[in-house]
Specification:
Layout (H helix, E strand, L loop, with lengths): L20 E10 L12 E10 L3 E9 L11 E9 L2 E6 L8
Length: about 100
């Protein structure tokens, strides 16, 4: 007898992490500003998963912009979620207001 649906046990699509790992889940660009002085400025975004074995997981929304003075040229975290055994903490930096 076979199951009517997939149980998700297909090991070809599952990876287990047993050591520290940095993984970029998504990356995109946007033009978040609407004013005529800044609407041409592009902001690069990425979602990074930082797994530390035995400690927990950090999910970070990082941004950079070569066009805008509001964000640094190199990747910087504007929002993060830290997950540990004792719970989770969500942190937002003031720069996040320009991206909403």
């Amino acid at each position: 007898m076979t199951a009517k649906y997939s149980t998700g046990s297909d090991d070809d699509h599952v990876r287990r992490w047993d050591r520290d790992r940095l993984y970029t889940l998504a990356q995109w660009s946007s033009k978040p500003f609407v004013g005529h002085r800044h609407r041409h400025e592009t902001v690069d975004h990425r979602i990074v998963i930082a797994y530390t074995h035995g400690v927990g997981v950090d999910v970070r929304h990082e941004v950079r912009s070569k066009d805008s003075a509001k964000f640094p040229d190199e990747w910087a975290t504007v929002e993060s979620i830290e997950v540990r055994d004792y719970g989770a903490q969500h942190t937002r930096k003031p720069e996040m207001r320009w991206l909403e």
